[in-house]
Amino acid sequence: MLKKFIVAFTILASCASLFAAKGDKAEAAYYHTKAISVAKANLGVPYRWGGISPSGFDCSGLVKYSYGKAGITLNRTAAQMYYGNGYRPSNLQIGDLLFYAPNKASAPTHVAIYIGYGKMVMASSSKGVIITNTSNPYWHSRYIGVKRI
């Protein structure tokens, strides 16, 4: 009888962890989708150095604000986001943070949100909040890494 109980308990525990993992993935999909939706809702908002609101955003301000509205707290600057918790995946997924620097050896000075299909949403100093291609020659040459939160 005890063996049957242990086997049943082990099976139930395994199933519970499976459901928790699926729930975690669903939750991640929700906050990525929500953050992208918030960022896209701010298309056209002007660039403002240090800006963290819809009256004006800098790049990290837009990312922090968008994920904040989705319930995720991020650090304030691109460099802090890059060096904080998380990991660098080998393939891009929607919601990943893309980091850029003036040269490969320096700390990141720019961050954007990957929205799929080779596109990212970001706050550009010249155009405000925009969607652009990840293959954009200016940004592509400055790309230093990605982070999944």
TrEMBL record:
Residues 29-149 form the NlpC/P60 domain. Keywords: Hydrolase, Protease, Signal, Thiol protease. The keyword Transmembrane does not apply. Residues 1-20 form the signal peptide. Gene3D superfamilies: endopeptidase domain like (from Nostoc punctiforme). PROSITE patterns: NLPC_P60 (PS51935), PROKAR_LIPOPROTEIN (PS51257). It holds the Pfam family NLPC_P60. InterPro entries: NLP_P60_dom (IPR000064), Papain-like_cys_pep_sf (IPR038765), Peptidase_C40 (IPR051202). It comes from the Bacteria. PANTHER family: MUREIN DD-ENDOPEPTIDASE MEPH-RELATED. Belongs to the peptidase C40 family. This is NlpC/P60 domain-containing protein. The lineage of its organism: Bacteria, Bacillati, Bacillota, Bacilli, Bacillales.
